[in-house]
Amino acid sequence: MKKHNFSAGPSILPQEVLLKASEAIMDLENSGLSLIEISHRSKAFVDIMENARALALELLGLEGKGYKALFLQGGASTQFLMVALNLLEKRAGYLNTGAWSQKAIKEAQKLDDIYEVASSENANFNYIPKGYDIPSDYDYFHCTSNNTIFGTQIKQFPKCDIPMVCDMSSDIFSRSLDFSQFDLIYAGAQKNMGPAGTTLVVIKEDILGKVSRDIPSIMDYKIHIKQGSMFNTPPVFAVYTSMLTLEWLKGLGGIAGIEKENEKKARLMYSEIDLNPLFKGFAAKEDRSNMNATFNLVNDNLKDTFETMLKEAGISGVNGHRSVGGYRASMYNALPLDSVKALVEVMSELESKA
Ligand SMILES: *Cc1c(COP(=O)(O)O)cnc(C)c1O
């Protein structure tokens, strides 16, 4: 039986996407060849790559606005360094909202001075700092839209006169935003878009070419753009499956369509966390993530009972990250509302038992 999959990443994909992807492994669109045994330079795969790139821009509302979409390798973690190699000349400002922000800062610091514009480390990252200034003479500002581990999400992005770079690994394509306020967006596929192995990078082209360093070819966005995201062999399965997910999303009415579902799921989840006296939410209410809900049991004595009940209900992947503890329900685009209902039912059943 299919489980209710709340995994934080790699995470749930739509069933129909899994089915189509598995068919393509055996026979890509009746070609008599497998997706993973054809040349990436074949027309069949070049079309897949172009379709995936175009769909990403279309869904984000960034077509014809000077942006390019790339499907790269090395995960979002490679982007921590690649962003700095391509954009950092003198100084950059970083918003520190948790573990992923800190890793991005650490990599950029290998190249130059980084200024932390604000941090919520004083409260174990349970909120999003607000009201900070971003110096207008810096090369760029970097933030993390959704903090997967802590369950916080930026609801209002700052006004920013310099290029704004955003790690959207865990909430890309989940909510309507004016994506043109960002100059560079990156996201590892494995949370809301596809299997692990590729990273979507969306760049406004005119921010490139301004640093003096000689950028290694494979780290150079300009080279990847010029080569149509085929500088080297791309991860064909991850790109194809991401394309299928983007097609699925388009069929549901795009981001605006899925956003309504995501809001329903988050409302249901958080109302249970707030109303059930056995549980306590981790993140500050106004900054709660619609993707990752973090919460704890008030009384740890109930841990074994709760976890046995979760298991019996077929609920998988709700253990919290070691730096926060407790539980984390990841409610990415492909997670059905029914899965959240199943989890909430177990929580209220625990209350009636206790
Ligand atoms: C998972 C995650 C990453 C790391 O992604 P990799 O693809 O494993 O490098 C970076 N940032 C955020 C916000 C994440 O959730």
UniProtKB/TrEMBL annotation:
The alphabetized UniProt keywords are: Amino-acid biosynthesis, Aminotransferase, Cytoplasm, Pyridoxal phosphate, Pyridoxine biosynthesis, Serine biosynthesis, Transferase
Q: How does it assemble?
A: Homodimer.
* Source organism (scientific name): Flaviramulus multivorans
Record's cofactor remark:
Binds 1 pyridoxal phosphate per subunit.
Residue span(s) of domain Aminotransferase class V: 5-343
Q: Please name the gene that encodes this protein.
A: serC
- What subcellular compartments does it reside in? Cytoplasm
The principal localisation class reads cytoplasm
Q: What protein name is recorded for this chain?
A: Phosphoserine aminotransferase
Q: Which PROSITE patterns match?
A: AA_TRANSFER_CLASS_5
Q: Which domain of life is it from?
A: Bacteria
Residue positions annotated to bind L-glutamate are 41
**According to the entry, what is the taxonomic lineage of the organism?**
Bacteria, Pseudomonadati, Bacteroidota, Flavobacteriia, Flavobacteriales
Under catalytic activity, the entry for this protein gives:
4-(phosphooxy)-L-threonine + 2-oxoglutarate = (R)-3-hydroxy-2-oxo-4-phosphooxybutanoate + L-glutamate; O-phospho-L-serine + 2-oxoglutarate = 3-phosphooxypyruvate + L-glutamate
